[in-house]
Design brief:
This protein is an all-beta fold. It has one domain. Helices cover 0% and strands 26% of the residues. It is built from no helices and five strands. Strands 1, 2, 3, 4 and 5 form a five-stranded antiparallel beta sheet that branches. It is globular and about 45 Å long.
Amino acid sequence: MNNKQCPKCMAEMKKGFFYVRNSEHPIIFNYVVWVEGEKKDITKFMGSNANAPQYPVTPYKCANCGYIEYYADPAEEWRS
């Protein structure tokens, strides 16, 4: 799944990650996860309530046109 082709221009897509540059704690790593549900229910996915499956998101960027596509990785448990 690492060799991806851009659906817009058919060029190679490069795997990457999101980095929060303005974090007050640059040593703490932040990453994006996908969780099923609505944003209004976000508190049930945080802290001691974080029992819903969370899927880390990996972005791929087209080397030619810059198009970015996201893929969900296998689910992880957070603070299990």
